[in-house]
Amino acid sequence: MRIYTRSGDKGTTSLVYGKRVKKDDTRVEAYGTCDEANSMIGFALSQLLEIDFKEKEAIMKIFHKIQTALFHVGAELSTPKEKDVKWKVAQEWVDELEKIIDEWDAELDPLRQFILPGGHPAASALHVARTIVRRAERVAVKLDDEVNPLALSYLNRLSDFLFVSGRYVNHILGIKESVLHEES
């Protein structure tokens, strides 16, 4: 199978089931932004591969499942409304994110003020992924009733998860968070 098809050379692309749309279509922007977030998560994980820590295997397993789910969210966003979605987002996926958020957040210092994204490069990349997921959510909302509400819920919860993940990675690696200081 060749990577290039030349079918997009004139500014269009295919959705699932082959419907052609312009590359600036809201659906394309929504699933493309999910792909961007997924790539940033992969970049964050590549930073963690370089170091040894006891939670590494468990974290990698969790993120593999999340990257797979995010791929399915993108597939759902790229399926025209009138067509069946092969990989429907499920409530269990949202519930699982909430469970992990609660577990990891319980190990962190309570938030008393805003934190500044940063710390370990993996944590920083997770914060960038969080902002990309927020953008994906903003774009997907523009699709109104043309998208499974659970896809929106998943994106919303995923951004919360990525925020906690950035904090958690800094925590387990012993890196102190930087907090926002108001200028006097």
Description of the molecule:
The chain has 184 residues and is mainly α. The protein has one domain (19-175): Up-down Bundle (Hypothetical Protein Ta1238, Chain: A). Helix content is 58%, strand content 5%. It contains 5 helices and 4 strands, in the order ββαααβααβ. The protein has helices spanning 26-49, 56-77, 91-106, 121-141, 149-172; strands at residues 12-14, 20-22, 115-116, 178-179. A two-stranded antiparallel sheet has the order 1-2. A two-stranded antiparallel ribbon has the order 3-4. A hairpin with a 5-residue loop joins β1 (12-14) and β2 (20-22). α1 (26-49) packs antiparallel against α4 and α3 runs parallel beside α5.
Could you outline the blueprint of secondary structure elements for this entry?
Blueprint: E1 12-14, E2 20-22, H1 26-49, H2 56-77, H3 91-106, E3 115-116, H4 121-141, H5 149-172, E4 178-179
Antiparallel strand pairs: 1-2, 3-4
